[in-house]
Amino acid sequence: MSESAKGAERAEPARSASREGHGRLVVARRGGESCVLSAFARTPLQLVVPRARGPAVWAFATNHGGGLVDGDDVALSIDVQAGASALVTTQASTKVYRRREGGRGASQRIDARVGEGALLALVPDPVSCFADARFEQRTTIDVAQGGALVLVEALVAGRVASGERWCFARYDARLAVTLGGVPLLDERLLLAPEDGAIAARMGRFDAFATVVVLGGALGGALGGALGEDARASLERTSAARPVRRATHQLAASPLGDAGVLLRVAADGAETLSKCLRATLDFLPRLLGDDPFARKL
Questions:
Q1: Could you tell me the residue range of the domain that residue 110 belongs to?
Q2: Quick one: average pLDDT of 275-279?
Q3: Beta bridge mates, 175
Q4: What mean pLDDT do residues 162-178 have?
Q5: Which residues contact 79 (CB under 8 A, 6 or more apart)?
Q6: Distances 212 to 45, 189, 203 between C-alpha atoms, Å
Q7: Which of 110, 184, 186, 119 is nearest to 146 (CA)?
């Protein structure tokens, strides 16, 4: 690398981190292991990297004050380069606090690139919106051919014990995934009282998740290592039929030729976590440890 290129590389974090709440994580493969090339963030976003080198880098995205307040605009850029592996998660649920009168709410953006032969496991804990909170999330992920992605986007009902079950003002989440530059998934989940009472639409369920498992590196997982419920739903077997009053319901469908899209509805955060752990039980082998082990 030329001196001018090195200088440009060193200057990039300074420019990218110039805005409050913005951060960047770059992971590469060096010496047969995954390692962090760059990790930085500006308040209120924090990046904690307990495993900066190994079979997979582990990084935790957190926020000062334990959540997002009205006016927060958090953005994280993730670059997992060819052959590297990374887990990006959170220490706990992302709380979105009540907005001020007339406030615009809080927002979060994630832009990620996954290189050839690389793996990104983006599995944060659920978002929990307080009463009258407004939250907007945008997630855009570009996976190279031969790359792999495990993505979880989850939402819980809020502070149910305090009588705030699905009482937020607005939840607006958009998710776009491309594979080799070709759009594979582009969807939006919008929950707002003006479209009808959110609690009535969610029925008896207090937790919901969208899961994407994608990429040739996970070929074995797609066919056999996914949890029993996901395999049954994917294969449309009789075991996939909804069970009345079950603690959770799961539906799976093919995502192109190299992926699976799953929807999970559960009666609470604990049930959802157990379901996700069972469904994604191949992750510890790829990441060197179980990302759900200390969250049950």
A1: 85-287
A2: 92
A3: 139, 187
A4: 95
A5: 24, 25, 26, 27, 112, 113, 115
A6: 25, 15, 24
A7: 119
Instruction: Give the chain's domain count.
Output: 1
Please give the residue that has the higher pLDDT: either 44 or 18.
Answer: 44
pLDDT in tens, 72-104: 999 999 999 999 999 999 999 999 999 988 889
pTM reported for the whole predicted model: 0.87
d(CA 276, CA 239): 18
Other CB atoms closer than 10 Å to residue 239's CB: what's the count?
A: 12
What count of Cα atoms within 13 Å lies in the side-chain half-sphere of residue 273?
A: 17
Q: Is residue 295 a part of any domain in this protein?
A: no
Q: Which residues pair with 255 in a beta bridge?
A: 259
Residue 234 is assigned to a structural domain of this protein: yes
Count of residues for the chain?
296
| Residue 215 domain flag | yes
Omega cis (within 30) before 44:
yes
pLDDT of residue 192: 93
Backbone φ and ψ for 69, nearest 5 degrees, come out as -105, 170
Please indicate, yes or no, if residue 276 is contained in any of the structural domains. yes
Instruction: Give, as one character, the DSSP assignment of residue 99.
Output: P
Indicate the average pLDDT of the chain: 86
Q: SS3 letters for 182-248?
A: EEEEEEEEEECHHHCCHHHHHCCCCEEEEEEEEEHHHHHHHHHHCCHHHHHHHCCCHHHCCCCCCCE
- In whole angstroms, what is the distance from residue 17 CA to residue 40 CA? 8
Q: Are 141 and 150 in contact (CB under 8 A)?
A: no
